[in-house]
Design a protein that fits this description.
The chain has 421 residues and is α+β, with helices and mostly antiparallel strands. Helix content is 52%, strand content 13%. It binds zinc ion (2 copies). Residues 230, 232-233, 235, 246, 248-249, 251 line the site of one zinc ion.
C-alpha cells in the first residue's frame, strides 16, 4: 500500500498539522494538510476528499436544527387539500402511509414510513447532537459512532426525494382541480431545502478531525508498511487491527469487506429480476365508477407527454426507468472489473461508483408521489387510486440496488493496480 505525502491536489493554502487518512475509494494512505479554502482530491483516484469553500460546521449545525424543527410539522400537518364539486380531500404524510397499510401494502407502507419519517428524524437528531457536541466542546466516546450512523443514514433519509414526489403529485393534480398547499406542505418544502443546504455546508472530514484521532494512530512511525483504512472515518490503523473495531467510529475493520462481491452480486441479480416486474406491472390502479385502469411506469410517462407535461415525464422516466437500469449495469461493470482484475479506466470506475451510490435514492420519487396522491383520491365507489403490483417491485428494486452499492467494497477495483505497484 502506498503512503504518499506529496500528490494531494490542489493545495490552496496552509499546510499545518497534516492528518494521515486512507482514501475510502481506493485505500491509498496519504497525508492530508489542513486547509482553509479550496478543495483536496485523492492523489490516486482523484475522488474529492475535502471541500472547504462554502463549508462551515456552525452553518451545518444551524441548517440541521432548522431541518429537525421543520420535519415535525411536515410529518403531522396538512400537505395538500383538493376540493371540487363539494368533495374535499386532504393529504397528510401519515395518511398516505395509513392508506397504503389499509390497502394491504404493508412492505411499501413500512418502507415509506422509515425513509420519509423515521430515518430523517434520526439522521438530523444525530447530526445536530454531534455538531453541537463539537461546537460546545462536549465530544465524547459516543460522538464517533453517532456520526458514523449519521453518515450511513444520509442516503436513506429522503426528505429531498419526498419533496420531488410532492412536486410531481402537485403538478399532476393542479391542472385539473384546485389544490391548496397546507402548513405541512410548506414545512416539507423548507425541510427538504434545508436538507440540501445541510449537505452543501457540512464538511465531513473536518467533523472527523474535530471528533479527534486516537493516540494509537497518530503517527506514521507507529504504522507498519501495510496499514488498514477505516472505510467510515478514513482512520489509518496498523495491519494487526484487522477484525477489531475502529477506535474512533467503532466500525469493525477489514482490509476488504468479507463477502462484499458475492453479497453485492446477489443483490444485483435480485435487482435484474425485479426490474421487468416494476416496469411491466401497473404502478397505480385507478377505479372510476367501477372500471379499473392500471398505469405502468411507461404508460404514466406517455400520459404526461400527451398532457404536455414534458419536464415531469422526463423526471419520471429518468428516476424510475433510467436510473435503476443504469445502476444495475454500472455495478455489473465494476464486478466484472474486479473479477477480470482489470487495471483500465479505474478513475472512471470510481466516479461511476460514486454516482451510482448517490443517485439511486431518487428512484423512490414515484412511490412518494403516490403517497401524496392516494389520500386525495379516495372517494369510495366514485373514484379511488390504489397501488399496483409494480409499486412494491419498484420500491424493492431501489432498496436492493442501494444495498448492493452499500455492500460493495469499491477499494477492490483498485487492487489489481496496487498489486502491480
Ligand atoms: Zn482515492
Ligand atoms: Zn472508523
Amino acid at each position: 500500500m502506498l503512503i504518499s505525502d506529496a500528490a494531494l491536489a490542489p493545495t490552496p493554502s496552509l499546510s499545518v498539522a497534516p492528518v494521515m487518512i486512507a482514501c475510502p475509494d481506493c485505500a491509498t494512505v496519504q497525508f492530508m494538510p489542513e486547509i482553509k479554502r479550496g478543495h483536496l482530491s485523492c492523489c490516486t483516484c482523484h475522488a474529492p476528499l475535502q471541500r472547504k469553500t462554502g463549508r462551515s460546521l456552525d452553518a451545518a449545525l444551524a441548517c440541521s436544527l432548522g431541518t429537525l424543527a421543520l420535519l415535525l410539522p411536515a410529518n403531522l400537518c396538512l400537505l395538500l387539500r383538493v376540493s371540487k364539486a363539494g368533495l374535499v380531500a386532504s393529504s397528510y404524510l401519515f395518511s398516505g402511509v395509513a392508506v397504503l397499510w389499509s390497502h394491504g401494502w404493508v412492505f411499501t407502507a413500512a418502507a415509506v414510513a422509515m425513509q420519509a419519517v423515521v430515518f430523517p428524524l434520526l439522521r438530523f437528531s444525530l447530526l445536530s447532537a454531534v455538531l453541537a457536541s463539537i461546537r460546545f466542546g462536549r465530544v465524547g466516546p459516543w460522538t464517533g459512532p453517532a456520526f458514523r450512523w449519521c453518515c450511513h443514514l444520509d442516503l436513506w433519509a429522503m426528505p429531498d426525494v419526498f419533496l420531488l414526489g410532492f412536486i410531481i403529485g402537485y403538478s399532476r393534480l393542479a391542472p385539473f382541480v384546485p389544490v391548496e398547499i397546507g402548513a405541512g406542505g410548506w414545512c416539507l418544502i423548507g425541510a427538504a431545502l434545508l436538507t440540501m443546504l445541510t449537505r452543501a455546508s457540512h464538511d465531513r472530514r473536518e467533523t472527523w478531525r474535530r471528533i479527534g484521532q486516537p493516540a494509537t494512530t497518530a503517527s506514521a512511525e507507529r504504522l507498519d508498511a501495510d496499514p488498514l483504512g477505516c472505510p467510515a472515518c478514513d482512520l489509518v490503523l496498523p495491519a494487526d487491527a484487522e477484525g477489531s473495531r475502529c477506535p474512533r467510529c467503532r466500525l469493525r475493520i477489514w482490509r476488504r469487506r468479507p463477502g462484499s462481491l458475492t453479497n453485492a452480486f446477489a443483490l444485483v441479480i435480485a435487482g435484474f429480476a425485479l426490474y421487468p416486474i416494476a416496469n411491466a406491472y401497473p404502478l397505480s390502479v385507478i377505479t372510476l365508477a367501477g372500471a379499473q385502469t392500471g398505469h405502468t411506469l411507461y404508460s404514466s410517462v406517455m400520459r404526461l407527454v400527451e398532457a404536455n407535461l414534458w419536464p415531469l415525464a422526463c423526471v419520471i422516466f429518468t428516476t424510475s426507468i433510467g436510473i435503476p437500469l443504469a445502476k444495475l449495469v454500472g455495478l455489473c461493470w465494476l464486478f466484472l472489473s474486479v473479477r477480470m482484475k482489470s487495471r483500465r479506466h479505474l478513475v472512471a470506475k470510481t466516479r461511476t461508483f460514486r454516482l451510482i451510490d448517490e443517485i439511486g435514492r431518487w428512484s423512490n420519487a414515484d412511490i412518494f408521489t403516490l403517497v401524496v396522491y392516494m389520500p386525495l383520491v379516495q372517494f369510495g365507489q366514485l373514484a379511488t387510486v390504489n397501488l399496483g403490483q409494480g409499486a412494491p417491485a419498484l420500491q424493492a428494486l431501489v432498496i436492493v440496488t442501494m444495498l448492493a452499492s452499500g455492500l460493495f467494497d469499491q477499494r477492490l477495483v483498485w487492487d489489481p493496480a496496487r498489486r502491480l505497484a
